[in-house]
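Incident review: delayed structure delivery

Summary: a single-chain prediction request sat in the queue longer than the usual turnaround. Root cause was a stuck worker, restarted by the on-call engineer. No data loss occurred. The affected request and its eventual output are reproduced below so the record is complete for anyone auditing the incident later.

Affected input:
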Amino acid sequence: MSAGIRLTAEGSTFVVDRHLAILTTLGPTGRLHSVPVGFTLEDGIARIITSDGTQKVRNAERGGQASVAQVDGGRWLSLQGPSTVVRDEAAVQHAVELYAGRYRQPGVNPRRVVIEIAVERALGSSGIVEK
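Output delivered after worker restart:
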């Protein structure tokens, strides 16, 4: 993970088990925009597959910070960093494969893009993030 952020063994399992999350981006007026998503984490990049043109995509295109957070009972994890939108076909396919491994194979979507968060900060419950 970037910036020396590392998950514990429990944290590494937590981000591959099936849990939904909340993606938070900044809307055009600076207000928070939070929506439920599935995400994957690989090599310090959190990836969210979605349809082009959605509010979350438009928000990520403006740059700035985003976070994706998941919770299960008392366990929680929040991953934060700059967001970008990726439309490269190979990168989108890779993100779909990662998503299918964690959740399920998504349906065909010719408008699919990937929101990537370059994780710079991780916060979590005890035992999730190495201190």
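Verification: The first strand starts at residue 21 and ends at 26.
Action items: add queue-age alerting; document worker restart procedure.
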